[in-house]
Amino acid sequence: MKTKTPQDTRILALADPVAAGLGLEIVRVRVMSGKKPRLQIMTDRLDGTGVDVDDCARLSRALSDVFEVEDPVSGEYDLEISSPGIDRPLTTLAHFARWEGYEAKIELDRMVEGRKRFRGMLAGVEDGNVLLDMDGEEDTALIPFDWIADAKLVLTDALIEADLKARGGNAPAQTEGDE
After folding, report:
1. Contact criterion met (CB below 8 Å) for 48 and 23
2. Is the same domain home to 78 and 119?
3. Distance between CA atoms of 22 and 174, rounded to whole angstroms?
4. Which is nearest to 28 in space by CA: 14, 42, 18?
5. Nearest in space to 144 (alpha carbons), one of 105, 115, 106, 100
6. Is the same domain home to 56 and 117?
7. Is 176 a domain residue?
8. Pairing state of beta strands 115-126 and 129-133?
């Protein structure tokens, strides 16, 4: 899920060791077409604590040097390095485990019980499966990680609060009308 095309996969192979050397992980790689292609790379710290502008700039400089030699995108293109954001994509089993207890949307590469899209609370991982608690279902769903085409966190108050806490900030105070 980190990549979608063979070109993305080649870029990931070049970028992964560079990012790891800087204490970062590559979350996702996409080459977006257009008049001038855009190479979009999402990154995070290996410990999942989030990146800042300096981290993105360091990775951009380091990757520019590698891409200048390897030329993974033909012609001119824009390199965009960014954080995955609060409602981040989940692209590895470790991401699903790290974000246990938060709401996620998952899209499969095949139909299961007449549907491809699922939404619920992440309940961890087990034997290569993502565990998902969905509203209206008594049992926890076991979704094979290999079947997942796309997954991301859902922006909720709990997720925003956790993000603020991780960044050392405080959640906004509730006012009387918020209850």
Report:
1. no
2. no
3. 39
4. 42
5. 106
6. no
7. no
8. antiparallel
